[in-house]
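Notes from the pairing session

We agreed to fold both candidates in a single pass and log them together. This is the raw record for the first candidate, unedited. Please don't reformat it; downstream parsing expects exactly this layout.

Candidate A
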Amino acid sequence: MSAVAPGAAAAAGPGVPLAERLRSPALLLVPAIAFLGFIYLLPLIDLVRISLAGIPWWTHFERVFSVPLYWDSLVRTMQISATVAALCLVFGYPTALLIHRSRGLAKVVIATAIILPYFIAILIRTYAWMVLLGRNGPINKLLQGIGITDEPLQLLFNRGSVLLGMTAVLLPLMVLSIYSSLSRLDGSLVRAALASGAGPIAVFWRVTIPLTLPGMGAGFLLVFVSALGFFITPTLLGGPGDQMFAMHITQQADFATSEGFLQALAVVLLVITLIVVGVAGHFLGFEFIWGGSKLVEAQTPPARGGAAARRASPGAGALLADLAGWPILRLIGRLPAGAGAWTVRIMGGAVIATLIVPIVVVMIISFSKSSFLTFPPPAFSLRWYEKFFSDSEWMAAFFNSALIAALSAAIAVSLGAAAAMGIVRSTIRGKTILMLILVSPVVVPPVVLGLSLYSLFLRADLVGTPWGLAAAHAVGGIPIVVVIVAAALQGVDRRLEQAAAVHGASPATVFRTVTLPAIAPGLAAAAFFAFLHSFDELVLSLFLSSAQLKTLPLRLWADVNYQLNPVLAVVSSLEVLLVIGGIALARPVLSRSGGAA
């Protein structure tokens, strides 16, 4: 029997023997779907139920939209999210082009400089900007040193610092989305346009931009949706007039009398997010969420037209190509070819500096001998490292985070890897819907998910327990595992599995001797990233931890809010080293997985 026979049998219908249906790879989806259904979807449904508990049901929602404090905050959130997405697009496209056009070691270095900050916790990256923009920070020191100002400027706690911080945090997401689109670009089209006499800038406007619009759209929407749920960066970098909608949810959570209205706030944010994702899915396909290609449905022949074809050559691309004929763009097209290349280098270099410099500054400050944050340090010392490692509370928080992350990664890998096998190896219908359910936690605002889980965990007596936090963190870890392992599985040569099955190997033996060794690199990478996701998780921990169980991000959050000292720089530096070490170990793993594909 071939390796695909069980899956095909399962899709064949009720006439297939029960024994054959029970061997279907589709059954591997059941544990992950059941876990997410109970600990993710049901709490969200319960959240909606509580929000509608008023008499009449629209009572709480009427307050959300009628009270200026909340309405203005909602409008402000949409404006800030759109602005951040636009800034990421403007600066992310040249950076993606810079990676695409680079070769050899330069490409590896530039890509690493972009990807590395993406895996560092948002809290740490925001803290780095607090150091950089502070009164004693390097920017103020530089401005004073060159004579632009005599006194330190107030660079923090305003809209500009919020936009800068959020853009820096979300830029890697945009760059990766656009680069994915550029990497699939047919180089022969560009060469044909150049051979026809078009200049490099004209080719960029008439060929490259239109063909990469899907990647631009996916990046814009992913950044916009991610920004909607932000509250860490606006809280630390913004002023009273920069409150975003998610911040009201965390504030109202402290008041027992706000039940119903609190859930209504969360539902409003959730509905807006789902509407944006739904509209994006209609035009781009929901595959933009996980950055993959359309999943092949059971017994569905590949279409030669329809929505997928329209997405591949969108009308917006033709419109933009027509716009390229405008006088101002014709004038730009007459610029020397080197102008475009230098623009890409300058803007890409600025983006890399924006992502890397704050992290480097924080790492240097961790060796400061001073008792307060200042750069450059007046002298160097290991006193703050000694303080961190000798502080029982910091060490307890570190070991709590490591334990919870290990448990969470174990849950995410066991469930997510099985689900990836079920998605890739089965022939059931509705694969796109199932995949959407599996990866949908990445688009739900963390404050909404945390609030919904709190009620369930309170009833189950899981609040403040390692297993409770691990299960909650696994909700976000499963999508990571599914995407990575599914990509690894698609790179496995199916003929090897079929040959083993034909020679009498059972499905379990085929998996153990053929499939598992082939996807082991992907599994290792998925386990690392699931561990890192849990280790860095702050928002869910804010809702679900207790005074007796503090994680490292929670301790860091408390100190960032109430006292700024170089111990925080030590914690940030150690986590950066953890990320660097993990990515260094995972890089060859991911390279082998990618090479197989």
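Candidate B (folded immediately after A)
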Amino acid sequence: MTHSARLSVDIGGTFTDLVLLRSDGASFSAKVSSTPEAPEDALVTGMLEVLAAAELRADGLTEVLHGTTVGSNTLLQKLGARCGLITTRGFRDVLEIGRLRTPGMFDLTWDKPEPLVARRYRLEATERVRADGTVMTPLRLEDVLAAGRFFAAEGIESVAICFLNSYKNPVHERQAATAFAEAFPAIAVTASMDVLPEAGEYERTSTTAVNAYVLPPLRGYLTRLEQKLRAHGVTAPLLIGNSNGGLSSASVAQQKPVFFISSGRSSGAVGAQRLGAATDEANLVAFDMGGTTASAALIHRGVLARTHEYEFRAGMSVPSRFIKAGGYMMRVPTVDVAEVGNGAGSIAAIDPAGLLTVGPRSAGAVPGPVCYGRGGTQPTVTDANVVLGLLPPLLAGGSLSLDIAAARAAIDRQLAQPLGLSIEAAAYGIREIANANMVRAIRAVTVERGLDPRDLTLLAFGGSGPVHAADLARTLGITRVLFPPSPGVFTAMGMLAGTVEHHELRALAGRLDRVDAAEVAALSAEMQQAAVAQLTAQGYEAASIACSYEIDLRLDGQDAALSIPFDRFDAAALRPAFIAAYRDSYGYTPTDAVEAVVLRLHAHAQNSEPLDFRALKAAAPGDGGGGAARREVHFGRGGAQLTPVLRREAVTGPIDGPVIIEGPDTTIVIPSGARVAPNATGSLVATLEPAR
């Protein structure tokens, strides 16, 4: 029998994870080292590995799903295109003015992020559109062309065009973008009306500038990737994971990369939601720990928390309802994730005050942790875990041999001796500090939202999530921890649970009780027609496209809005729904008037069935570790314990901790006082004793 397959790939800062789902339900996975200089090389290497394991040829793939860190790394490392901005006269400094906020009121060391467009490249054009959409001052096209000549002479690669009130009437932006593209075809152009046709001059300008900044690097990467896939015989379409946890065609990603900054990371949260539904777990914290960062997302009452605003910054990134102002703002649909710069590759060091710190700097894939033997010299969280005996001598399915002696020597020389500690105590300190940092991310999506984490289940995945999950759960009082099938590659698996998405929005204005239902109906029909046209052009049948609607509402005089879903517009029913959502979010029941801000449409399409965890059949695993039956493990300050070490497939019934469970993609650590058992989906469920 000839099989076909879908391939999902998540490229992280340290490892590239691949999952191949064959048409008979069998899954095959691989974890290979990332190649930061050319991320597509690791993808091709891993693809050939899983195709061989599944006994398939490249032309047997029906879809290639891809989550990439190219967009986020471009922002983090400031490696984007040289950018220019053309805006309405008098508005060139909107990017620097921002929201006039600081992320911490008393942090005197904080520096505002440098705008992605330098001031000398932020130019003005004579034009003006009023707030009601009428033209006050016609566009002077010569200003646009003069700016283009200056940009071309200066070597500018990408330009953002953002005019005042263009969301209400885009005529000037359309004229400027068309004229600029015709006159300067070598410079990429992003018009705000194509990215965010919504009120809010700073938000729209920032989102458009981010799109312009990352567009050339991401477009170049996806072009190279498609060429390499075709060269290896892949004829399947390439779909890119977006920040909302869905999928879009590579052509869309090349035009609107701002929607893909959090590509990949959000897919793990979508997979967590689908796994929760399969296991009747409606309240979950999805915890993902990779090599560079750790993140947390909330699934409450079966619904994954999402937002329409996201800010990219280094260090701790918290959900959007909190004042941040410390990074680059993007108003795009995204999974609401709290992220901290702490992963398995995070570097441990002694700061100038003599204190032990962990992260946010990471050893990444190159040179990697000291124990990888690839030139790394600074101890990391992985080095600490291997010294403590929590990790096996072999990782990544047995392909990576760890140098435990080198890890011990690095921790001893750089940390233990200066601090007057034993090697094991220093390693345990690294782990404890990393755990404390990661607890912050989980608290941000639970305690800071008024939710008691003790009422939730912790779903741990990522290459290192299961190594730390039990400790994090105990700190938070969580008594139930879920380890999914193949947790080390679960983010890639989550993409297989996603659908192709398209988003449309139209601005509204005025009090909710005065919104014209006929206007909403006309805008809804217009958005649906645009979405269906986009998706059918990508090869999806109109009958397979499903649409849902939301309306952004806010209190009269406020700026922040909440999205309220609806099937049929009814102002009388939407007001109490908004009041209930406001009470859930802020703990206060308002009586003020309610304003309508934006109408949204979410369209979904698919050519194949999304992943069903209940039907998943894992392939025979490779050697997940060193094969030892027992080894010395340091769980805490009480010294080493001789601990059983089991292969994951050997866990067929309840087992009491302490025990180390090794698989080809990750290691699961179960401490004393906990019991672990498999469930019907192939997940492992650990039950911990309640905290005293």
